[in-house]
Amino acid sequence: MQNVVFIDVDGTLTTSLSAWELAHHHFAKVDPTIIDKMNANTKLYYQGKITYNQWAKLDVGLWINSKYEELEKALLPPVLINGAKEAIKLLKDHGFTVVLVSGGIDILVDAVKTEINADLSYSNRIGHQNGIIDGSLLIEVGDSKADTLDVFSQTYDYDVSKAYAIGDNTNDIDMFKEVMYSLAINTEIPEVIDNASNHIMTDNFLDAVQIIINHKNNK
Prior knowledge:
The protein has 219 residues and is an alpha/beta fold. It has ten helices and seven strands.
């Protein structure tokens, strides 16, 4: 495993709302108060009053006793950025292992992984029993994506400081700091741009991947 690229999903490989927002808006068709509760949880997180892990658990708690198949309806099929499939093929043709690292929901991330033929994925898995969401949550990507990269490093005996990363939001900054070269895509958040090696605005993921490949070839 020579070259690894870690890629965020929501807002990076997809162009729709985040998986969490998609789910909330879907369930709000039955319970409109969910949107206000979602916004309240979001405010608590950005005020620093709760961790990402606590935020995720609070959000899942809003869906308890809902049908799991409704969550699938909310998230599928994923809406990919233009060129996503072609870009991942190009990365793999150039010897990259492609790893998706998402603070989003496994249903959507697993579907993206399959559709673009990524090698591995890490995300958060919503618990359910007998087809009903039970409020439990297995967090693979929580407060720090650097922790997830550490899990990858230990599992595959790989030095992530030799890797690449692509992302678009503040929760990607910890990931950016761990790798050799990072690319912020389609974001105007100064903190994200400042912590990336490079940044790009594009409607085609091939443009982003070409920057990664060019860096690899010229280093």
